[in-house]
Amino acid sequence: MELYIDAEQAAAELGVSLTTLYTYISRRGIRSQRVPGTKKRQYWKADIDNIRKRKGEKPSPPARDTLQESKLTLVTPEGPYYRGQSAIELSETHTLEDTAALLWDIRRDAVFGPNAAVAPPELRDLYKVFKDVSIADKAIGILPFVERANPRAYDLTHEGLCRTGADLLRWYAAILAGRDVTSSEPLHIQTAALCGGEDEVADLIRRVLVISADHGFGAGTYAVRAVASTGVTPYRSVLAGFAIAPGRRNVLGHRAAIGRLLDELAASSDPQSVIARRMQEGEDLPGFRFPWPYVNGDPRANRSLDDLGRIRGDHPLFVKVMAAFSYAEAELGRHPGHGMVNDLIARVIGLPSREYLYPLGRCAGWVAHSIEQYEAGDVDPPLANYRGQLPKVSELP
User: Fold this and answer.
1) What whole-number distance in Å separates Cα of residue 231 and Cα of residue 221?
2) Residues 258, 305 contacting (CB under 8 angstroms)
3) Going by CATH, does the domain composed of 73-244+362-376 fall within 1.10.580.10?
4) CATH topology of domain 252-349
5) What predicted TM-score, i.e. pTM, was given to this entire model?
6) Measured between alpha carbons, how far is 359 from 105 in angstroms, rounded to an integer?
7) Per residue in 185-203, pLDDT tens?
8) ω into 61 cis (within 30 of 0)
9) What is the three-class DSSP state of 82?
10) 6, β-bridge pairs
11) Going by C-beta distance under 8 Å and a sequence separation of 6 or more, which residues neighbour residue 221?
12) Does domain 4-65 have CATH number 1.20.120?
């Protein structure tokens, strides 16, 4: 690809005269350099293409199409749709295993069988090493050993990838519970056992896991797909999603800030004043961010709040937090996001962390994206618009 073009080419690309081109050099920031041994100059082609874009014309040569195609999830103002089916409606009847099979385009009984994945011999020692770290970091440390202990993980056929996905979900549930073996029990039942195991709590967890399974192309999904395109197993690609979890710009990375806000609300006799004080002092409201195209709150959060209210509507924390949510909506037009509601649910039902809900559900979507991207081939990265120091003509190949 040409890096520089001469004045005549540049003028032709822009559809202007040479005189107009020379005015563009200073007014529009077109970079150029002198051709050694002559009085002529060459012009940086990326700058020419950028001006063409601003004029509504297509650059030449044609830019690579950077839109990522997927058949998995459509995000609408009413919530996500998994392969054309409303995630919120699916949560009424489906389990996470059902939802994973739908996203992975395979029969549930073909991959979620009774066979348990082999535990790595180092597992007990690994639990000790990672005793005081987050669940995400624990998964990052342990899952590569699980992969190595299970040679079938390297079967990259469609069915093989799906079987590995099922093993991965079960291993994440086992890591949550600190168990040495996986279980074929439904994932929501396994999770509910960590906080008492009542049927109504298990059903709430089932619903949350289903609507958390996928949400299109967030940062985690891009990371997972980029790694999957290299031909690794789902164990490795899903680690990319866990790796970005603590990021300050990532929804999961706000967990600590959300936790502090919930602590304040729990300790206050006037939860509305907590919201008012934060706004008066210019502080942020963590957990009140939700993605496009939601304009009146995240439908997933709204549904989960309704579900939680049905079974724990009289819980003191739920009562206080709902008062704060109502105040934030009425006075500030702010609505809680899915992450905030996940954290609230975990506290009200007695789970130690939101990491027990959202990431477990999201693993199903990350595996789906891993499979789709591996089968599609390499990720096609966007063309970069270089803005640094330009090379001299004599240094160009």
Assistant:
1) 16
2) no
3) yes
4) Cytochrome p450-Terp; domain 2 (1.10.230)
5) 0.81
6) 21
7) 999 999 999 998 899 999 9
8) yes
9) strand
10) 42
11) 214, 215, 241, 365, 366, 369
12) no
